[in-house]
Write a structure and sequence with these properties.
The complex is a heterodimer of chains A (509) and B (306). With 509 residues, chain A is α/β, with parallel strands linked by helices. Chain A is globular. Chain A has three domains: 242 residues, 3-Layer(aba) Sandwich (Rossmann fold), CATH 3.40.50; 175 residues, P-loop containing nucleotide triphosphate hydrolases (Rossmann fold, 3-Layer(aba) Sandwich), CATH 3.40.50; 80 residues, no CATH class. Chain A has 17 helices and 22 strands. Chain B is an all-alpha fold and 306 residues long. Chain B contains eleven helices and two strands, in the order ααααααααααββα. In chain B, strands 1-2 form a two-stranded antiparallel sheet. In chain B, a hairpin with a 3-residue loop joins strand 1 and strand 2. Chain B starts with a helix and ends in a 19-residue tail after the last helix. The chains are: A alpha/beta (509), B mainly alpha (306). Chains A and B meet through helix 2, helix 3 and helix 4 of A and helix 6 and helix 7 of B.
């Protein structure tokens, strides 16, 4: 341990402690991050890594503990202090003003005077210099809303460097990037390190840590449980440290036994009111007993495809046939009717479409089925029956805490997702549509959710999984369709697919 | 010919007179809305300001004291709005409506108690009013010029200064402003205070420049018309100014058209003409502005996530 921290520390934390109400988010964390290194911080969701970095960046105040920058204790009361001490943060959700140009975003908070004119010229020159030095080129006059996600992230990094940061914290930087963009990001990080910048990378993607970081710190339940040099560890060991037990990253499952076609889409198109073509001639077939995965960079029509297939939006052309019923522009359908046909849907956006945050878990557990027995009799809800149903689901799907009366919003993301999956799967649907099954879900729950999906498939359910996580698609799906620009641009059998090839297909178009 | 020219000149002068409070109010509201604080309380601020302007001018005999009192009164309401919406993250529309009701009631109560004229203030003499500077017929008092200058000033402040950049950012993405180490609350308070300043001037114009005294509900919805002008102008100063002029013109034409027989239609009822600006507002709001371009964070209280 001593040898790991021997190099001069750029950042040192001593005994940092933080609670939010009853939740003890960070428990007495001490760590040191050497200057000019790339350090990864890994941990499950809720392990406290983001909270810890928010404390370092002055967004939260620690209840106890000390922060040292370049061996001097400092007081981080606000991001302004952090910036003044040379710390910059690239957040998972970009802190960019969409309607501003790159230059305006760059200057926000560092305008260089009460009038903008002079600052603009200086910022333009500085941007050109940073672009040359770090290979970070972005058009300064482009509107941020028009940039790709990868470019927006570059703007975030430029923003931090523009403020003279020597220490850079990145929170889940690859969550929204294609594999190629991620590689590009890692090259940038390495060139930053070569120029003496200290980089801290928060992630739960172990493979990326192994690829780019020098050292890795593992957090679990608010505490640091291990520190390793990446050359001396493996993804297996790190995963085990993160969850505190051995887990399998690979799902082993029997080959699919494909039955009859349960859902078929032909020439499915969707054009919105502004005339933008969101779906463009989608042909798709889903058979009983198989999992079809849809891979793609988010925003390429996956969301709309799920909306149309689940009956939320009618198609503008083409048709869908579900369990014998044909849906086309002339014969639309609503989600309740879809459910009655035996189609269940786990929406991508669980907080907006999967549950009502203010409802109790028991109410969430019957959402969409609230008018059916045994929950509803004579137009009245049977609360005890609903409670029993919820308790039963919670037990079968290991939802914690097992409290049907608790508000849905008080469950962690993983447990909310398990509850929604339980609700949809418990009706034994013929077709199951799942959007982002494990977004914001920790590793333990991911494993559980994946196993349940495969179990359901083996029982004969036809499953369509949409995910931006390639790893997930690769381990779950029997067939993989790649979406881009509202079209399906390719199909690959899962056993012949690899991340690189898929990534190239996703990025093409 | 001569007659037509006179008609046009007089109508244009009237347009400017009627549009002045709208322009001032709209520029004030623009600052607030740009910062992400919706202000349906423009009406109440203007009404309160109008009352205190007239009351103070009447008691002190000074028009300028009236202007100062108007600004103070409007700022008090602006701060209340800020306290409710920024500090306590209350619902901005509810707070705005509450301010309107408060102003409508308080001005009448205080007016009745102080002057015993059924809510009116005593008529103001010439020395207690802001008088025309160059053209007595046109009514070009100092606030008309302030209103005209307020438009390029607002544009300049929003487009060309550090404050403006941050103001625009805080209305779109307050998180980005916070992450840049700039206080979201202080920025929004400054915006709300600017709004108070301009709506105060608008109120003063009504009671001590355009008219000679305060009468109950004298704003008569002009705060809402200003709000509509902001929306027509898509939250940009010059287009909003243009919208104010259109409303002013409609109003001026309405006054001119009273009692005039329109060929083929006959005499147009006064009420219909007076309703024109409001009908136009509804009409345009319903379908002619196109996609909403409101600041994205407008109406959303800023809270740090936990």
């Amino acid at each position: 341990m001593q040898s790991l921290t021997a190099a001069a520390a750029a950042i040192e934390l001593r005994g940092i402690d933080k609670s939010f109400g009853a939740v003890h988010a960070v428990r007495g964390v001490s760590l040191a991050i050497p200057r000019g290194s790339i350090t990864g911080i890994v941990g499950e969701n809720g392990a406290g890594k983001s909270t810890l970095m928010s404390i370092l960046y002055g967004l939260y105040r620690a209840d106890a503990g000390q922060i040292l920058i370049d061996d001097r204790p400092v007081d981080m009361a606000s991001p302004r202090d952090a910036i003044a001490h040379g710390i910059g943060m690239v957040h998972q959700h970009f802190m960019l003003v969409d309607t501003f140009t790159v230059l305006e975003n760059l200057m926000l908070g560092a305008e260089g005077g009460p009038l903008l004119a002079g600052g603009f010229a200086a910022a333009r020159a500085e941007l050109a210099r940073l672009g040359r030095e770090y290979g970070l080129s972005v058009d300064p006059d482009a509107r941020v809303a028009d940039l790709s996600v990868g470019e927006q992230q570059r703007v975030e990094i430029l923003k931090v460097l523009f403020r003279g940061a020597r220490m850079l914290i990145l929170d889940e930087p690859s969550a929204v990037l294609t594999p190629q963009e991620t590689d590009r990001l890692f090259e940038i990080l390495k060139s930053l390190r070569a120029r003496g910048v200290t980089v801290v990378l928060i992630t739960h993607k172990l493979r990326e840590i192994m690829a780019v970081a020098d050292r890795v710190i593992v957090m679990r339940q608010g505490a640091v449980v291990a520190e390793r040099l990446t050359v001396e560890t493996s993804t297996g060991e790190l995963a085990e440290l993160m969850v505190g037990r051995k887990i399998r990253l690979d799902l082993d499952k029997a080959p699919a036994e494909r039955g009859q076609t349960m859902l078929a889409a032909r020439g499915l198109s969707l054009v919105d009111r502004r005339g933008v073509r969101l779906l463009d001639g989608i042909d798709l077939e889903l058979r009983a007993g198989e999992i079809v995965g849809i891979a793609g960079v988010s925003g390429n029509g996956q969301t709309e495809l799920l909306q149309v297939l689940s009956g939320i939006r009618p198609p503008t052309a083409g048709q869908v046939e579900v369990c014998g019923r044909v849906i086309d522009p002339a014969r639309p359908i609503d989600p309740a009717e879809m459910r009655a046909l035996g189609l269940a849907h786990v929406p991508e956006d669980r907080l907006r479409q999967g549950l009502v945050a203010a409802f109790e878990a028991s109410e969430t557990s019957i959402l969409g089925y609230q008018d059916q027995p045994p929950y509803c009799r004579n137009h009245l809800l049977d609360a005890p029956a609903v409670g029993r149903h919820c308790a039963d689901l919670m037990q079968r799907f290991d939802v914690r805490p097992q409290t049907p009366g608790l508000r849905s919003s008080h469950f962690s993301g993983g447990n909310q997702q398990k509850l929604i999956l339980a609700r949809e799967m418990s009706r034994i649907p013929k077709v199951l549509l799942v959007g982002q099954p494990t977004r914001g879900v920790d590793i333990g729950a991911i494993e559980f959710i994946h196993r349940e999906l495969v179990k359901s498939r083996d029982a004969g359910c036809a499953i369509l999984v949409v995910s931006v996580e390639l790893e997930e698609i690769l381990s779950l799906a029997d067939r993989i369709l790649v979406m881009s620009g509202g079209r399906i641009i390719g199909e690959v059998a899962a056993d012949q697919a690899d991340e690189r090839a898929l990534g190239r297909m996703m990025a093409d178009a | 010919m001569e007659e037509t020219l006179t008609f046009i000149t007089l109508t244009l002068a009237a347009t400017l007179r009627v549009a002045t409070p709208l322009v001032l109010c709209a520029m004030g509201g623009l600052f607030s809305e740009k910062s992400g604080i919706i202000d349906v309380g423009l009406e109440g601020k203007m009404l309160m300001a109008a009352f205190f302007a007239a009351a103070t001018a009447s008691l002190t005999g000074s028009a300028w004291a009236g202007v100062v009192a108007a600004i103070v009164a409007a700022e008090a309401l602006a701060l209340l709005h800020g306290f409710a919406c920024i500090t306590h993250r209350g619902n901005q529309v509810v707070s705005g409506i509450a301010l309107n009701i408060l102003a409508a009631g308080l001005t009448v109560v205080l007016g009745t108690a102080w002057f015993a004229r059924g809510g009116q203030t005593p008529p103001l003499g010439d020395g207690e009013r802001l008088k025309p500077i160059f053209f007595p017929v046109a009514g070009d008092n100092v606030l008309v010029y302030v209103a005209l200058l307020s438009v390029p000033f607002t544009w300049w402040l929003i487009a060309r200064t550090r404050f403006g950049l941050r103001l625009r950012a805080v209305g779109e993405m307050p998180l980005a402003v916070d992450a840049a180490g700039v206080s979201v609350a202080w920025l929004r308070y400054r915006a709300v205070l600017l709004c108070g300043l301009f709506s105060g001037l608008a109120g003063a114009y009504l009671s001590i420049a355009q008219n000679a005294g305060f009468s109950r509900d004298m704003t008569a919805g002009q705060g809402f018309i200003a709000l509509a002008a902001i929306i027509f102008g898509k939250w940009r100063p010059f287009p909003a100014f243009g919208a104010c002029l259109v409303f002013g013109l409609l109003d001026a034409v309405a006054i001119r058209l009273q009692g005039v027989k329109v060929p083929g239609v006959g005499e147009v009822p006064v009420q219909l003409i007076q309703a024109l600006p409001y009908l136009l507002t509804l009409f345009l709001l319903a379908g002619f502005i196109g996609n909403a371009v409101a600041p994205k964070a407008a109406g959303v209280p800023y809270e740090k996530e936990h």
